Amino acid sequence: MGTNFALRDRTLAAILSAASKMIAERGQGVSMHDIAESAGVGRATLYRYFPTREALIVQLFETAVDDASRAVDSLELESLSACQAVERLTLEMLSFADTYRTVLMDEAVEGLRHRAKDVIGPKLQDLFASRIESGELSSEIDALSLVRYFGGLVRMAAFMVADGGRDRVKVAAEVATLICNGASARQS
Q: Which of 60, 78, 115, 173 would staple 103 via disulfide (CB 3.0–4.6 Å)?
């Protein structure tokens, strides 16, 4: 019985990996047939796992949120300064946006976007709240508002990297500068 579950898990992983790569590379035009072929499974097998394209897109979105949540946990942001933490976090989010961009914008996940906020938002809010409490970030803006501003900046940064050809590392540093220092020059 354990072998069947292991095979099922491997097949599911192969389908999701192939779908993620192909959709990221070729966009919405990728067919279910192409995904099945790339995953090394038959179309019937693919449709057993995902009866519709929308079901596959929804699962990819769920996978993206779970992966991003685990990545945030693994970044060890507590050991970094606020600006370093924001920069590292931005780089990670830009990586996920690059990998899952087409999926994140798909209409099939429109009603699920709250899940990303529900899963990742509290982690970011805790991070910002602790940095406000420590004095590293201004107390003039509450942690929840900072999370929302950060989310907007990351979304815009993802477009700048993908569509504008901007360097991901440079853009992440700019987002950190905006969050940590604001855009105005400091007076001595």
A: 60
Find the CATH number of the domain harbouring 164: 1.10.357.10
62 shares its domain with 3: no
- Quote the Cα angle for 153-96-99, to 5°: 125
What was the pLDDT predicted at 68?
87
Kindly provide the residue ranges of all beta strands, DSSP E only, lying in 39-173, ordered along the sequence. none
Structural domains counted in the chain: 2
Asked if 21 and 45 sit in the same domain, the reply is: yes
Tens-digit pLDDT profile for residues 41-88: 999 999 999 999 999 999 998 988 898 899 889 998 989 999 999 999
Amino acid of residue 20? S
Query: Cβ(179)–Cβ(89) under 8 Å?
Result: no
pLDDT of 104 > 60? The answer is yes
C-alpha–C-alpha distance, residues 169 and 47, integer Å: 39
